[in-house]
# Entry
Amino acid sequence: MGNDILPKEIIQQFSDSPVSINMGDKNFGDVMVVGGGVSGIQASLDLATAGFKVYLVEKGPSIGGHMAQLDKTFPTNDCSM
Amino acid sequence: MEGKKGDFNVSLKTKPRYIIEDKCTGCTTCVQYCPVHYPDPFNQDISDNKAVHVYFSQAIPLVAYIDDSCLRLKDKKCDICSGVCKTGAIDFRQTTKKTDINVGAIILSSGITPFDPSAKEEYGYKTMQNVVTSMDYERLLSSTGPFEGEVLRTIDKKHPKKIAWIQCVGSRRVTEGDNSYCSGVCCTYTQKQVILTKHHYEDVQCTIFHNDIRSFGKDFERYFQRAEQLPGVEFIRSYASIEKEIPETRNVIVRYATADDGVKREEFDMVVLSIGLNPPAAYKEISEKFGIELNSHGFSKSDSSNPIKTNRPGIFVSGAFLGPTDVPESVFTASGASAQTGELLDYRRDKLAKERVYPIERDVSAEEPKIGVFVCHCGANISSVVNVPSTVDYARTLPNVVYATEQIFSCATNSAREITDLAIEKGFNRVVIAACSPRTLEPLFRDTLREAGLNQYYLDMANIREHCSWVHAKQKDEATQKAHDIVRMSVARAGELEPLLEFDLPVNKAALVVGGGIGGMTCALSIAKQGHEVHLVEKAKDLGGMARRLHTTLEKLDVQTYLDELIHKVYQNPLIHISHEATIKEVSGYLGNFTTTIETEGRIKTIKHGVSVLAIGAEEYKPSEYLYGESDKVFTHLELGEEIARGNKAIINAESLVMIQCVGCRNEDRNYCSRVCCGHAVKNALKLKEKNPDMRIYIIFRDMRTYGFREDAYREASEKGVQFIRYTPEDKPLVEKAKEGGKDVIRVIVPDLILGQRLELTADVLSLAAAVIPSTSTNEIASHFKVTLSPDEFFKEAHVKLKPVEFATDGVFLCGTAHYPKHIPETINQAYGAAGRVLTLLSKDTVVASGSVARVNDYDCVACGACISACTYDAIEFRDTPKGKKAFVNPILCKGDGLCNTKCPTNAIMLKHFTNAALLKQIDAAVTSKDILEQMDAVLEEA
Amino acid sequence: METITPFIEVIDEIKEAGGEIFKMCFQCGLCDAVCPWNKVRPFSMRKIIREAAFGLTEIEGEDIWRCTTCGTCPAQCPRGVKQIDVSVALRRVATEYDVFPASVKSARTARASLISEGNPLQGERKKRADWAKDLSVKTYAEGMEVLYFVGCYLSYDPRMKKVATATANILKKAGVEFGILGDQESCCGESIRKTGSEQVFKDLARKNIKTFIDNGVKKIIVSSPHCFHTFKNEYPEFMVNFEIVHMSQYILELINDGRLSLKGEFPQRVTYHDPCYLGRHNNVYDEPRDLLKKIEGLELVEMEDSRKKSLCCGGGGGRIWMDTPREDRFSDIRLKQARKVGAQILATACPYCITNFEESRLNLEYENVLEVKDITEIISDML
# Structure
């Protein structure tokens, strides 16, 4: 899944994530990215590296999207993970 | 969601996972004991999983979750998992949580949903056991799939020997429940599946049923040829129909049409449906919640002058929600969305985000090496071959090793934390990770050392996956022995590692953009709008580039008006400095600190900048075939478009017009597809039909490559009466001048494959789809910026998917047709993508240079220059020193590849982190002295 | 390879005749792959469409007459080419030029009979209601619950008259107040239209519509899916709409409403053949099956090609009147499919299908192993 490390600025809103906050509390961020597939991950990484606080929201239990399900990718046959 | 740009309030509901993430170690003990077997969605329901499970072996976060099939959740019956979980991570009291978040902008990257063919009876999906979708097949091919990478039929666990792929399932069809657009990815992913299948099983016969091969992307044409040329692979031009399943064998009978031999019937062991891409399942909900408009297909409705933008300010779209896209486009539109967000929120950059703070580094140079060893299972990737516990035990016996343990996935977040914690607790000063290749994960593991207050260069990775388990899958004992050897060698090297300093380089915050076409201007504007100076360099007198010659697009963009506005914005922006009639004379420096000398309007100018963007565009091939230049009735598509825009009566009033596609490319000279010409031909044809509905228009083509929503325009052209005739490169159209009814015409003779006859067409105008070819200045610019070219001589990106708008040379970016032919909206997206990546550097004050660079020992250097000619980065030069002329390595330019070391005749040049001392220790450890002695004894005995 | 020039005038003629949709074809070949003809002999709809697109149609040849209008290819065509419309247009052009191959000659006889007697079977118009003579079936009068539109085959064909009788029996048992039009009834015109005789179709339709209106008809029950189709989908071209119900739907409704009940057991293995004009053209797949399932003891089995994939009997598109050599008959294949699943009875709901199946049954010498029945015949025995 790329050779970048997820910066700490990205807070993943997974179910029961450690950052979950009590009902009604306001959390401030710069950008919300909806969808944790390859595009959402890249957008989050770029934004975080460029100095923005990002909330990445994914409906599934893991980020990765459909690309994570692919065996390899064309046209280089690189591993999609 | 409510609010407006700069101030959106979003409330999120988070489904309970029933697992306390902090406590779950991803050990999967609960999964083993869970009694509920449930079809595994990640494996396309082909294999089972449990009600509690980890989504997939490399999931992030790598913690379990409990799904709706759980007995406890259903009727409070079972509590096994809570009992077996050693860390007490199971928590059934969790409930849905609501979180309110305030953000300034939103990016929708909702992706796609694979087409579901089960609603279409005729495909037999779900009713015939050996009809699978391409998504199912991906899982069958995958080593983490249902059969661990063996392609098997679910029904009898046999290897299929004959496999058919049926293309355009759910795509390019107007039938109910299908999509009329082309999904754009299926042709090439099918070729990938064929190549991988043949790699797995040499003797499998692969047949692909299709109607056009759409290899429109960079390097796709060669990829197609690679698939097509494999033995036992056949591409058949016919959509196929599934007749029936044979009850005894469960094989599938497929029927297809041929032009010469009628309909054929063939039996296959497995049929793969190459399913297309649907909009995200929740597209209506997304549209309503975020108040954005959708197009008629359910994807984001885009303005072709900026597809990433939505109708709602502050909300952007990236990836496949823009329309069916492949991975590279998903990645660069993400960077593009990031750039546009940056334009909007530049004022609040760095206000909320915090830099990471690491503990102060501990000086351990005086300590004896104390090494911690972590042996990774990599799920089953390593542990199914190598005996991991035995390797851990062995590691404990090695000198200087103070601790060793095993991990399921060392790269998982919790495992990484464990490495940090243990390093502090046990007081390691060196760490060896026995896992995979350092290529991908070394940065992550170095980070764990930094977190533990250790210098990150005190890490060594023992590659027991690529170098061991993956290549010795059938020799488990030997592989375990080899893993011991590799770990022993790694430990030996680790003892010799030295701490290295990485240093921060100041970044000049200006950018240089080469090329003033749509790509260059769009990129320049976006960078400038984020507060950075941009030097825009254009070789022509005016800005605009190739777009000056384009007037309309299939998306109905008025190109000239758009271009005028864009140029106006560029001139208006005080941060953009434009140089006209400019040529690049010299480029020096490196990421963060480039100096470029240009000649502009006769003057020499020096520009200092931190990054460079190369957007030099492409050119049109001048045909030497089909009477081009010999008859005033023959044009290129680009010229035809210009003539239509000018209102040339001879063209608009023509009775008959013929277009020939693939002129100057998809041949031996240029083995690529120019991507834009099919769309271009259809665009011109539609424009002409609009002006003169009676005109007879024939488009002679090889494969219609109107990918994506352009398929609708192709169909519209058919509807308007444009006729399409397919030709093959073996039997090209013949073109000659002729006279008919007293007027000069062009006669075109082309065989029609379905009719089995040659058609003779009379044309008043002939238009040629002339190839898009690299700019003549490509080579020169490439050598100035030390960037490389692809086989087709377009610019080569650093990585097709991970770094699609960057060069391998740090600080140099690319966009537009210099990378590969593309349509205007694609160029615009990519230009924003480049701007997004540029900002990841320019928004920082410094960049970090690696500590692992070469250094020259002046005493030993004999100034022979061997290292200078070996270096591909021009990082070494002679400098005058008190001891005379000596080689000097610029540590910023050095990439640490070690080429110079091998050339130096006096060992004067050394590469930090790969010192002779460390490497020799590692080599010495390959064979133990005990082994050597035994060997000697044996020889002596024999003597 | 011969070199030819597109024949613009012919293209225009085909367009004029309503076949312009050929322009949508992108030659994927799926029509050929699914066409039942290719189970018996080579035939390329794709080529017919391609020839039409360049005005190169062999107007005097056999091929433009082959399409049985079974509807399989248009249902799957990715480009929405209405192959039936193109076929009909080509036949119109051929009819215009008055050129016909030998096999089509008998369809010309049917046409003549339709013009003079209102039926294709050379029966006298005044004998149209003879089948009902002894059944005390009323002539339709305004205010009756339904009009039973009998259709040509059920009125004249000796085999099909049994189906008419069975139908009348069921309706009476259920206490339905119904009537027939007798010699006022004309052929619905569906099939003659498909042979390119547009004017004959229009004349027949006009006669029928006039009769319906004159008699105050609102709801029409039909036995033939061809009548069903043309009343439902083609008569509205003349801006009239009647409520059209197929007999299989109607009987099911009668049973569900408690107006009709079935008695006794019928311990037979039955397979149901979907007529093209009931299934593919009008999406009626379930009612005939549901009806059969109501019968105690009856075991319903499905043949290899069923529902959307149902194999055409070969009788649509006017083919019922043309000569098809034995080796080219789809109905033979269909009977073999029925035997393969062990059916004792091949049930269906279309006079063309029954006609073709009965002939194949004789030719294949299946008289002792397989019966061909209309659903109404089975129901009628269970009252």
